[in-house]
Structures are given as structure tokens and as C-alpha cells.
């Protein structure tokens, strides 16, 4: 039986509803849940002594359920003559105090302030089908009539799905009146999913009529769980919370079935007192059949950006290694404290069961997995705002049993480490014992931790250093232009390891330069061997090329802020044909051009590589195993030149490794191992 309208405009037409209820007959039609789910909110705001107007009553059993449970002063209205006759005949003997009247809610004849409460279950949603001018005008007429007929202190209770356009119209209208608004989440029995569950969650909006008092702030509240009321600073936060609850409901419906291997759902759990998520949960289903059903994996603080936990492929690998059909990968949010792994388990144990796979027993013992018992620690160092990249955070993260790492994070992309440095305590000179003293010399309080200049945090940075092997002589004077500073780890490493190299680092964002100097120990060299310039790298390269300048090493390490393009590094402008030609003009005849290329779009990445290969005589690449990064090596010399021969490169990397270890015995840089996957032309 087809009971759906042919166009949305029919929802406001009496003829449509007459046809609907004739087809429906005596079977009650419940738009958004039945009395048992709604009774908690209804009886909280409507008392037996209240005179209640039920708008758009239809043939719902809600009014008779309310009547049988003590709320008997009910006036039910609808625009359908058919349904009013049906409902009057059904209830006139058994429920004589309840009346049914054919009334258009936009044109009511009731006197001002006649009702204590107005109840709307689905009528607003049925009428507010779009944001077209005539629709909004009709809704405003309905609101005006409800407001007129409602007594001071009376409640307007609306049961709605609160879709975006409904939210906007409803909140805008009653915010202008400054009437208090409270939203309840209605919890349905079939909410976990399945054929009987709703496609959208249901809400009860409770609006209280008050006298307008100039300057009085509006009261805006939300009840996510039973009777717990959270007051919000602004109505805009109400919309955000509603959208979060809608998303979570839809997620749970999706999780009621098995997801495909290319679908991973992420959601965040917040506490009432913080706008920063306490937990980030990513649900992963294994493509293969696993004997074990369900587990939770807690990612230690500071490790959430690693490939295994931050990428789809990494999480699939983790799920397969753990051997579970469904794995929930849990990240611990910044700005929160966590006592230990056991406390986290206790906090999450009930919530994560809502994410269980199909046919998982509701009382199943779900294992919690992690890497040992160490959940890591974070220590905020500084916070600020960049005019280029937005809010940023500098934090120290404790990993690996106490090792500290300093990180720069831009909060718009909080799962990516912009810069990282390993911290260490500088060596102290031991005090001499005075002659005859038997006291053990005291070390005193620890000095300020310093950045370990011999540590490079990313494989791609080590691969950049490996690219210096293409230079014919590393012990001669070398000029290097680096576009993209970050925390300054790479230029500092090059500066200290090769004393014959002069480096100019160009950075667009002045805030990044300040952070590098203040928190990452970047110190420009007095002898001009390490200079930092705040400028647009595109302009600097073009200007130097037009002046006939030459550089032996050109490194482009710039991330893209444009998420609509499948290129994370660099921005498209840095790989356009004319700019690559400018780089070619600036590069010395035996120099090397190094580019960090990170592309989620394989075709786009390949086209960039092809473009570079057409601009330069020789082009090699190194695809990093656990990242989307490809390091590109390009030069003017032919691939047959000695610098491009594998045996010569191997020898150069061995010498470079030995040189680096002399400067930093505990360095993490091992070039020969890193560069083993290098692809050279004609190989």
C-alpha cells in the first residue's frame, strides 16, 4: 500500500491527509515513537490539571494513552475532517473529556493564553518541508498562533527529528523571543539498529513562554541522558550537539551490520565540561572471517599519529594482527587526564558495547588491548594562533618508558604532527670533590631539556638527507635552499653535520618561525650559514632564478591546506610546469632537487612524477612503506653520471652514516638502510 505523497507540498493539504487516513483506516499511525518512549518527557512538563492543545493529532494513539494515564484535559485538532470524525467516534464514550476539532493550526479561533501546554508530535516536521519562502511564512503563522494561545509559563512541546532546516527555523524564531529552550533526546527501544529502528533519532523540544525582558540572556539546555541537564552558553552549541547525536544514532545503525573493509567509522565521545573530545573511536571490520568477535584497542597518548593507528591501511593491519572480526581503535584526547589503563576500561566498558558487531552477546566479556600498560602522558607547553594555519599547540609527549618528544600540532589537523623533536637533558660537568671530602657530588636539579639535534622524527626527513649522496662532493662548499621550516629539525641537522653547507630556510608562516625559535631550539647561525626568511617560497624561488642565482640543493617540504585536492604535500602551485622550470633554472648543473610528495590520489601523484621527469634530465624516487610520502630526487646530470650509480651511492651513504654518528652517537638516522628502496632511472 503506497501511503507516501507524490510531492512535499501535499503534506500541508487537507485532501492528502483525508486520503491518507481513509487508506490507513483504524490503525493508529505513530510518526515518531509511541507513548512508552515519550511518556517520560510528556509527564515531566504536562500535569493533569493542564489544558493541553494537541496539534496535528491524526489517528495517533498518543492522546488516548495520555488520557488513560491521567492527562485528560486534551483538545485535539487536525485539518483532516476524516480523521476528526474517526477519532471522535472512537473516543466519545470511553474518553468523554477529550475533544477532537477540525482546526487549521495556522488560523485558530481560541482565545489568547487559553492553553497551559501545546503538544506537537511530527506536525512541525510534516509542514516544514523546505526553507522556501511560502513554507517558512506558513510555519511562522503556526508559531505565532501557538504563542498567542499559550499561557505565560506554558510549555510548547515539539516531538521532531530536528533536521537541519527544522532546527534553523525553530531556533531562530524562539531565540528572537528569548524563550528558554530545552532539548531532550528520546531513546527508542530499537535504537541499536535493525529493520524496526528509525533512520533518524527523535527529540523533544520544550519551549517555555516567558515575558520578554530586555538584556536577559536566553536559557539554552540539553538533556542527553534521562534527567541530566546541561546548560549551554549559546544556542549555536545546541545545533552542534544535536548533529552529534544524530550522527551517533546513524553510526549505530550502520554498525548493526558488517561493514565493508574500505569503510571505517570514526566518532568522538565528549564530557559535559569540555569541548575537546575525551575519546576518538574508529570502528574497523576485518574483511576476513575471524574466530574472535570483538575487541577494543587503546592507543597510548602520543602514538595516535603513527601509521598503524592513524591510517585505514594501518588499522586494517592492526585488526588482522589482533585476530578480531571487529576492532574499535580508541585514541585518548588532548586536554584530559587518564589515571591508568584500568580506569579507561571502566569508563568505556558500557559505551563500547553499543558498537558491538552483529550477533555479539550483550553481556560478552570484551577484551581491551594495548601496547603494554603504559598509556603515555602529554604535557602542554604552549598554545597560540597562526594567521596562516589557525590554532596550534606545542606539547611534550612521554613515550617508550619516559622518553620525551616535543611536538607542534595544528588543531585544524590534530592527527598530523607538524613538527617533532626528541628532548634530552644536556650533559653536566661533574663538580670536583674537595680534597678529603667523602660526599658524593650532588647532580642538583635537572637542567632545562634541550632538543636533540641528531634526531629526525620522520622517515621522509632522513630520506631528504640521503639525497645529499647525489652531490659529487660533500666536503666542498654547498648552498642549500629549503622551502618549509617546520620546527627547524632538518636545517639544524644539516647545519651541524656538514659545516661546509650554507642553508637558507624559507617559511611562509611567521608563527612557525617563532615556535621553532622559542620551543625547538632553532638558532640562526651568526656566520650566515643558517638563515631563516619569512616569505612565500614560490616568490623566493622565482626571484632567485630570475637573478641568475644557483643552489646546489633545493628542498621543497610544504604541506597543502587545500583538502579538496588529493595532494597533501606540496600545494599544486609547487608542481606546476612553470614553477618546476624555475627550480630547474635555480638548480646548479650538478645539484639535486628534493621534493616531499604526498598524494592520496594515485593518478595525481603519478602525473606530478611525470611532470618532474619531463623537466629534469634524471629523476628517481623513494616510496616510504608506512606513509603516503614519496621522496623525489631530480637533477640535470644524466643517470649515467657517477653520482647516480648505485655502488657510488651506497659508498656515499656509508660515509655519511659514519660522519653523522661521529657528531651524534645516539642518532636515529641510518641512511643506507633507509635508502635501500630507492628507485633510479632505467632500473
Automatic annotation (TrEMBL):
Similarity comment: Belongs to the methyltransferase superfamily.
Gene Ontology biological process terms in this record: methylation
Glycoprotein among keywords: no
Residues covered by the Methyltransferase domain: 52-161
Source species, domain of life: Eukaryota
UniProt biased composition (Basic residues): 424-435
Keywords tagged on the record: Methyltransferase, Multifunctional enzyme, Transferase
Region (Disordered): 422-450
UniProt cross-references to InterPro entries, sorted A to Z: Lys/N-term_MeTrsfase_sf, Methyltranfer_dom, SAM-dependent_MTases_sf
Signal peptide as annotated in the record: none
Protein name in the entry: EEF1A lysine and N-terminal methyltransferase
Record's keyword annotation contains Methyltransferase: yes
MF-aspect GO terms: methyltransferase activity
Pfam families assigned: Methyltransf_31, Spermine_synth
Amino acid at each position: 500500500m503506497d501511503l507516501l505523497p507524490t510531492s512535499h507540498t501535499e503534506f500541508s493539504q487537507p485532501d492528502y491527509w483525508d486520503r491518507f487516513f481513509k487508506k490507513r483506516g483504524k490503525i493508529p499511525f505513530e510518526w515518531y515513537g509511541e507513548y512508552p518512549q515519550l511518556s517520560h518527557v510528556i509527564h515531566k512538563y504536562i500535569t493533569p490539571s493542564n489544558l493541553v492543545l494537541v496539534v496535528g493529532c491524526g489517528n495517533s494513539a498518543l492522546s488516548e494513552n495520555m488520557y488513560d494515564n491521567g492527562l485528560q484535559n486534551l483538545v485535539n485538532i487536525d485539518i483532516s475532517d476524516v480523521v476528526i470524525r474517526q477519532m471522535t467516534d472512537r473516543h466519545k464514550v470511553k474518553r468523554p473529556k477529550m475533544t477532537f476539532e477540525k482546526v487549521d493550526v495556522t488560523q485558530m479561533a481560541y482565545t489568547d493564553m487559553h492553553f497551559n501546554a501545546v503538544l506537537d508530535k511530527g506536525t512541525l516536521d510534516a509542514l516544514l518541508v523546505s526553507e522556501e519562502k511560502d513554507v517558512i511564512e506558513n510555519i511562522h503563522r503556526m508559531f505565532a498562533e501557538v504563542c498567542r494561545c499559550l499561557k505565560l509559563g506554558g510549555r510548547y512541546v515539539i516531538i521532531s527529528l530536528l533536521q537541519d532546516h527544522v532546527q534553523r527555523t525553530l531556533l531562530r524564531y524562539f531565540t528572537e523571543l528569548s524563550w528558554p529552550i530545552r532539548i531532550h533526546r528520546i531513546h527508542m527501544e530499537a535504537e541499536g539498529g535493525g529493520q524496526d529502528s528509525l533512520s533518524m533519532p527523535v527529540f523533544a523540544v520544550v519551549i517555555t513562554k516567558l515575558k520578554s525582558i530586555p538584556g536577559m540572556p536566553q536559557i539554552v539546555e540539553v538533556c542527553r541522558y534521562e534527567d541530566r541537564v546541561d546548560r549551554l552558553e549559546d544556542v549555536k552549541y545546541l545545533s552542534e550537539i544535536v548533529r552529534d547525536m544524530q550522527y551517533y544514532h546513524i553510526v549505530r545503525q550502520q554498525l548493526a551490520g558488517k561493514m565493508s573493509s574500505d569503510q571505517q567509522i570514526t566518532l568522538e565521545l565528549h564530557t559535559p565540561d569540555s569541548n575537546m573530545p575525551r575519546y576518538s573511536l574508529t570502528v574497523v571490520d576485518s574483511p576476513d572471517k575471524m574466530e574472535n568477535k570483538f575487541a577494543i584497542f587503546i592507543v597510548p597518548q602520543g602514538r595516535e599519529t603513527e601509521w598503524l593507528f592513524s591510517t585505514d591501511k594501518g588499522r586494517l593491519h592492526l585488526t588482522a594482527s589482533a585476530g578480531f572480526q571487529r576492532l574499535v581503535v580508541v585514541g585518548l584526547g588532548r586536554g584530559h587526564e587518564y589515571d591508568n589503563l584500568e580506569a579507561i576500561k571502566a569508563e568505556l566498558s558500557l559505551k563500547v558495547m553499543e558498537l558491538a558487531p552483529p550477533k555479539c552477546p550483550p553481556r560478552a566479556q570484551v577484551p581491551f588491548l594495548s601496547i603494554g600498560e603504559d598509556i603515555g602522558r602529554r604535557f602542554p607547553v604552549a598554545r597560540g594562533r597562526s594567521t596562516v594555519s589557525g590554532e596550534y599547540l606545542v606539547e611534550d609527549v612521554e613515550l617508550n618508558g619516559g622518553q620525551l618528544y616535543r611536538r607542534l600540532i595544528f588543531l585544524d589537523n590534530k592527527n598530523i604532527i607538524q613538527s617533532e623533536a626528541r628532548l634530552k637533558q644536556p650533559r653536566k660537568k661533574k663538580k670536583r670533590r674537595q680534597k678529603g671530602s667523602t660526599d658524593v657530588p650532588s647532580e642538583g636539579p635537572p637542567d632545562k631539556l634541550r632538543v636533540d639535534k641528531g634526531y629526525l622524527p620522520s622517515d621522509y626527513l632522513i630520506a631528504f638527507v640521503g639525497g645529499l649522496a647525489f652531490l659529487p662532493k660533500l666536503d666542498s662548499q654547498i648552498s642549500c635552499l629549503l622551502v618549509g621550516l617546520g620546527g627547524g629539525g632538518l636545517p639544524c641537522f644539516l647545519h651541524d653535520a656538514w659545516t661546509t653547507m650554507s642553508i637558507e630556510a624559507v617559511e611562509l608562516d611567521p608563527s612557525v618561525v617563532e615556535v621553532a625559535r622559542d620551543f625547538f631550539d632553532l638558532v640562526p647561525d651568526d656566520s650566515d650559514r643558517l638563515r631563516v626568511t619569512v616569505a612565500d617560497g614560490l616568490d623566493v624561488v622565482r626571484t632567485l632564478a630570475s637573478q641568475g642565482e644557483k643552489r646546489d640543493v633545493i628542498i621543497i617540504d610544504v604541506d597543502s591546506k587545500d583538502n579538496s585536492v588529493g595532494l597533501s604535500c606540496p600545494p599544486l602551485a609547487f608542481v606546476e610546469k612553470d614553477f618546476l622550470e624555475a627550480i630547474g633554472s635555480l638548480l646548479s648543473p650538478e645539484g639535486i632537487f628534493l621534493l616531499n610528495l604526498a598524494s592520496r590520489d594515485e593518478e595525481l601523484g603519478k602525473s606530478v612524477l611525470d611532470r618532474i621527469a619531463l623537466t629534469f634530465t634524471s629523476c628517481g624516487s623513494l616510496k616510504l612503506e608506512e606513509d603516503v610520502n614519496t621522496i623525489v630526487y631530480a637533477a640535470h646530470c644524466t643517470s649515467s653520471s657517477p653520482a647516480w650509480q648505485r655502488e657510488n651511492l651506497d659508498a656515499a651513504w656509508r660515509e655519511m652514516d659514519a660522519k653523522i654518528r661521529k657528531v651524534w652517537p645516539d642518532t636515529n638516522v641510518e641512511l643506507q638502510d633507509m635508502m635501500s628502496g630507492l628507485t633510479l632511472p632505467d632500473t
